[in-house]
Specification:
Length: 404
Amino acid sequence: MRTSVRHFTRTVDGWFRQSAVAPPMRTRQRLIVLTLDILLSGSLVLRRMASAQAYLTPQTTCAASHERRLRRALNAPLLTWERRSAPLARQILMPCRARRWVVIIDATAHTEHLRVLTAALWYRGRAIPLAWVCWPGQTKQTVSYWERCRAVLAQAAPILPADARVVVVADRACGCPALTDLVAAHGWAWLVRGQGQTRWRDRRGGIRLIRTQVRQRGERWNGAGLVVKDAGWRAARMVALWGRAHQQPLLRVSSLPLSWELIAIYRQRAAIEALFRDWKSSGWQREASQVRDLAHQERLVLGLALATLITLALRAHAAAQAVPRWTRGGRRRSWAGGHSLFRLGRDAFWQRLWRNERTPIRWELAGLDHATWSAEARARHAPAGTTLHHRNAAEMPHPAATKT
């Protein structure tokens, strides 16, 4: 185990040195210590992280010494997003090609002590953290939420390719011009969840609620016009769908061309919720961390982002190896097809350690616009004669009830 951990550490260190802004040796060592301890322990509790390093890599250094090394890493002023995470994310995304780059923006909380606003890139049902802004919770704020949105978008912009067709997706809490104007200033498209009181104006000048365009289950409607009367009219396209299984209609407002595909694109927003679960209860146990200082928490988030990025790269490699072995038309999904890519990445990490694998790691993420991992697994194992990508009858209305 000690030999395999040492080899994995050298591999990650080589990746860091290939970055356009290679950090100094001491900074790289502290960053690797922080990231590797998160991967080994699956936790953000410093004592557990130090114990995992001491027990899984037996050597003369005790757990108390490892904890002191972790605290020095949390105090390192050079461990910041712009110096460490941004160059690595830019490097791993540089060779990627996609028809559409879906960036999701949302906020999450660390108990009541910290709030984190994150911009993440959709990747096959999960999300790649691009940029974030942290601020203390339960305190009077001197900076508005929209200024923090401006900062996150400005941080994410240089990571993405200059010619990328970016769509920013946000929940209804951000579905107002305060955010959409910031997105449009970068030349990006936006897609948000409409609220029940959102009004729109048609070409004839009539003003009505989007919510009233579908009055019962089984109806759908789309149209173009102007929205947001109180803040000044903005041109937008709207889609409303009230599926038979829905308690309320789905309202989507976007600057993209009018299409029913807007509903499918908005579903990708769930990937950032999966990312937050990976950081919390289903992965790194972030809420168990007892670190309260804002600067220290920002460096823990940096370690989380890099650990997630490494796991994504490992699971992409594992997925590329698993898919060719699948047999199309099988009666059941493979074992790998029944698990998330995050789980596969965690398994791939431990397989490299226990088997002492020395094969090079491909630090890239291919297939940004491919289907989700679960959808690909279902498609490849569908029995012969099965119609793939069928629509849910509970969501799609009868053609006779469709409005345009």
